User: Fold this.
Amino acid sequence: MKQYYFAQTTKGVACSMSCALTKLVFLEDSEPVLENCREHLSKAVFLMDAYDKTWHSIIWIRSNSATKKRTQQRLDELAFDAFQHFRQATENLNLYVDVLEERHTNGQEVLIPQWWDDMLLSLLTADSIFRQENKHQIIGKQLRLF
Assistant:
């Protein structure tokens, strides 16, 4: 079984994505789009854990403006990249559902796990948290000139 990164925190978007990833890991299907979904979700969880660690790496009230600016730039990059991986994971999950529908129309038996709705709720919660807590960070990424 392939190793995935799970959240090291119990708060926020990383935890919600990690809950969904936990469910997807136990889904025994070797479909490539499902594997891509797991990998992107794992990367998104890792990046949001890095975001949390970076946020707590400085004392915001006592730090000088250059340190705050540099840290904020890093936070913006982490949030944007995590959201991109999250979006790619959800797109791959949609493709996986299309594969399941195709199997069903071809007469194959398709069993939907009992926890499927819980997993979808975790993904919806993660999306909502991203859009609330990181709304300005996920709309674009500042390119570095030098």
Q: What stands out?
A: Residues 12-133 form one domain. The mean pLDDT is 91. The chain has one domain: 12-133. The two ends are 41 Å apart (CA to CA).
